[in-house]
Amino acid sequence: MTHMPPARGEHLATALALAAAGVPVLPLRAGKVPFGNCRSCEHNECGGRPNMKTPGPCACPAPCHGWAAATTDPTVVNSPEWSRAWCEAAAVAYHPGGAGVTVVDLDNADAIAWAREALPATRTVRTTRGEHWLYRGAMTSANAVRPGVDIKSSMAYARWLGPGTGTMTALPEMVRARVVQKPAAVRPAAVTVPAPTSGGKCPHRTPTYLARGIAMAEQRITEAAAAVHATVFATFLAVLSTHGRCGCLTEAHTARLFTAAQAKGESPRHCADAWTNALTRLGL
Q1: CA angle at residue 35 from 134 to 185, to 5 degrees?
Q2: Counting beta carbons within 10 angstroms of the beta carbon of residue 127, is it exposed (0 to 12), middle (13 to 18) or buried (19 or more)?
Q3: Burial level of 204, CB count in 10 A (0-12/13-18/19+)?
Q4: Alpha-carbon distance 278 to 281, whole Å?
Q5: Strand partners, 150
Q6: DSSP per-residue letters across the chain
Q7: Contact by Cβ (8 Å): 217, 238
Q8: Tens of pLDDT along the chain (284 residues)?
Q9: Is residue 48 within 8 Å of 60, Cβ to Cβ?
């Protein structure tokens, strides 16, 4: 096994203990972000990344695909491929939905005050900025269901910060209702942009050029360790500045960019707003 510093060894020990208890785990890099896809899994070629059509783990031995990398298999957690990741890991994460749990992530004092007034008491875990309230039962995940409140369960990950205190209670219906009230996450619709003013064949409509540009944009979003909002907007702006006037972007291209952004925690509304703002900035 690859030699690792004591702190990293503690992460691995924690992960193995959680896996043994039936909690799917994965390593996180600094900035609380998952490890990026390996070369074999770039562009979702393995079909395993959580792209809304084929959610779930892939057969790649590396800890790829964000939450979908989470596993309870100790052989995988302790494998050479994962051991290399543990050497660089800054924290342990888990897939709440895979463990049959929903995490109500409260980011500030106002959110905590709301939860204490509106939600039934349950197991509580202190976080850097607030608290995680853990309930039995899985549901659809959603960000910003109200100011300072995210819901992490299926197709999401949460940082492991200890077992917490209190008795875990059943997921209340009003938490499910917070997601029902929000617009459903859907694939972005086709974006209409002006046709080439010169007419004729689009100068960018070549498989290599366009594919490389979209792949680089996806990678830029996926590897963002901080300032995700700003990175998503800057990436959309760069793509549209190159391809927005010639009409070569298709619904499939925009869907890939929106999916990459949503995998980093952006809501469908944030994605749509960033895309619209980029179009406006460029005068499209």
Answers
A1: 55
A2: middle
A3: middle
A4: 5
A5: 105
A6: -----HHHHHHHHHHHHHHHTT--EEEEETTTEEPPPPGGGGGGTTS-S--SSS-S--S-SS--SGGGG-B--HHHHTSHHHHHHHHH-SEEEE-TGGGTEEEEEE-SHHHHHHHHHHS---EEEE-SSSEEEEEES--B-EEEEETTEEEE-BT--EE-----BS--EEPPHHHHHHHHTSPPP-PPPPPP-PPPTT-SS-TT--HHHHHHHHHHHHHHHHT--S-HHHHHHHHHHHHHHHHTTTT---HHHHHHHHHHHHHTT--HHHHHHHHHHHHHHTT-
A7: yes
A8: 445 555 568 999 999 999 999 999 999 988 888 887 777 666 555 544 444 344 456 667 888 777 888 899 999 999 998 988 899 899 999 999 999 999 999 999 999 999 999 999 999 999 999 999 999 999 988 888 888 999 999 888 999 999 999 999 999 998 988 765 444 444 444 444 433 334 445 565 566 677 778 888 888 888 877 778 888 888 888 888 877 777 677 777 888 888 888 888 887 777 887 887 788 777 76
A9: yes
Residues, the chain: 284
The answer to whether the CB of 132 falls within 8 A of the CB of 96 is no
Q: Which amino acid is at 126?
A: R
Tokens representing 221? 């979003």
**Residue 27: partners with Cβ closer than 8 Å, 6 or more residues away:** 11, 15, 34, 35, 63, 82, 85, 86, 88, 89, 91, 92, 93
Residue 89 token pair: 């890991």
